[in-house]
Specification:
Elements: E1 5-6, H1 9-26, E2 32-38, E3 41-48, E4 56-59, H2 73-77, E5 82-85, E6 95-96, H3 103-116, E7 122-127, H4 129-140, E8 145-151, H5 161-174, H6 181-188, H7 196-204, E9 208-209, H8 220-224, E10 230-235, H9 243-253, E11 258-262, H10 269-272, H11 274-286
Parallel strand pairs: 4-5, 4-7, 7-8, 8-10, 10-11
Antiparallel strand pairs: 1-9, 2-3, 3-5, 3-6
Length: 287
């Protein structure tokens, strides 16, 4: 099996120059960078906020890294210690050395990261692929998460034509001249393309070959194994799944979980409704 890596040294160097510049632009405040060894390679995390308390651990979506959460950092770090993760196998500052085959491997990787940080009571916050990671960690390696906040998570439907069309349309819109992007963002339902710095980082990552597993649909038995307080935030217009069907399934299998379908929002929920998502993350801490 392959690992996630850059095609060549030039692609890697080009990306990291852009990454460091984007990091300085989007996260100019105080932070501590840590490179943690795991079975699957070295994982970069950033810590900020208070020194004590239950930490919020942020897991990005596919193709992203810790910087996708830049809008949330100051708000969340005022309340709790904050740990933002560059998922291994994604374009970022983490370096993968061993293949990740499935959800069990993904859970093992995340558990090693949390163990290195001596975290035993995290509020895991995962978007899309990061949501799938958080769910798998709770299924296969429970004990280090006190709660889950899952922002339009993957794992509830096979990726179909609608989702791939949404991805392609978003990629084309992101390449359009800046003045056209607001209108295109509305047309394709993807406000993430308005994040110009992150779009530049995405273009710099085109030389990265991703080799992580495609999230399979979670079984009923797997979902019933989620025993910690869980909040599901779903975009009403998500291109990934039918959010009403997902909500109904969660209600049937996990009656104690909370589900909110956000009107007008799509799969790009963190950029569609950043204030709402931040408020819900903080509210979940208090439950």
């Amino acid at each position: 099996m392959r690992i996630g890596e850059f095609r060549n040294d030039q692609a890697r160097d080009r990306f990291h120059v852009t990454y460091e510049r984007t990091l300085a632009e989007l996260w100019p405040g105080q932070r501590t960078a840590l490179d943690l060894p795991t079975t699957f390679g070295t994982t970069r995390v950033y810590r900020t906020g208070p020194q004590s308390g239950e930490p919020i651990v942020l897991l990005p979506g596919s193709g992203g890294n810790a910087l996708m959460w830049h809008r949330y950092i100051d708000t969340l770090a005022r309340h709790r210690p904050l740990i933002a993760v560059d998922t291994i196998g994604e374009p970022g500052a983490s370096v993968q050395t061993t293949p990740i085959r499935d959800g069990r491997d993904s859970a093992a990787w995340l558990d090693e990261v949390l163990a290195s940080l001596e975290v035993t009571d995290a509020q895991l916050v995962g978007c899309s692929y990061g949501g799938w990671l958080a769910i798998n960690h709770q299924i296969h390696r429970p004990g280090r998460a006190a709660s889950l906040t899952l922002v339009d998570p993957a794992g509830f439907a096979e990726f179909g034509p609608r989702f791939y069309a949404w991805l392609i349309a978003g990629g084309l819109a992101a390449a359009a001249p800046g003045p056209l992007r607001p209108r295109l963002a509305r047309l394709v339902g993807n406000t993430a393309i308005l994040e110009s710095e992150l779009m530049g980082l995405m273009r710099a990552s085109m030389g990265f070959r991703r080799a992580l597993p495609v999230p399979p649909v979670l079984s009923d038995g797997e979902l019933r194994r989620l025993r910690v307080p869980s909040l599901f935030l779903l975009g009403a217009r998500s291109a990934m799944h039918d959010s009403r069907k997902v909500a109904d399934r969660i209600g049937r299998l996990m009656p104690s979980a909370r589900v909110e379908i956000v009107p007008g929002a799509g799969h790009a929920l963190p950029t569609d409704e950043p204030e709402l998502v931040a408020e819900r993350i903080l509210h979940a801490i208090e439950q």
